[in-house]
Amino acid sequence: MLAWGAAPRRALASAAGAHAGAAGGRTWRALSFLVALPAVGVCMLNVWLEQRRHKRVPPEFVPYHHLRIRTKPFPWGDGNHTLFHNPHTNPLPTGYEK
Predict the structure, then answer these.
(1) DSSP assignment letter at 36
(2) pLDDT value at residue 68
(3) What DSSP character marks residue 77?
(4) 3-class SS shares of the chain: helix, strand, coil, % to 5
(5) What is the pTM for the complete model shown?
(6) How far apart, in whole angstroms, are the C-alpha atoms of residue 88 and residue 61?
């Protein structure tokens, strides 16, 4: 009978292949810093340049009766603005703020 922990151990399949231990960790660390972070930086630059080129114009306000229903005022501010209100993107029940 085998004692606890004496069973043969299986090696798990990994993307590192023949790399063992710390070598696989170094590979993924290098990929993270040399590939992933620059890719995120390029994506951020793309979004920033597109935002500068195309200014956002809010769509025309249509006062649908089933949207922006206020049965009681919000407990902060003037009671009409949500907690994270953005005047450029969130209209009030009467329309966008000027």
Answers:
(1) I
(2) 83
(3) T
(4) 35, 0, 65
(5) 0.46
(6) 12
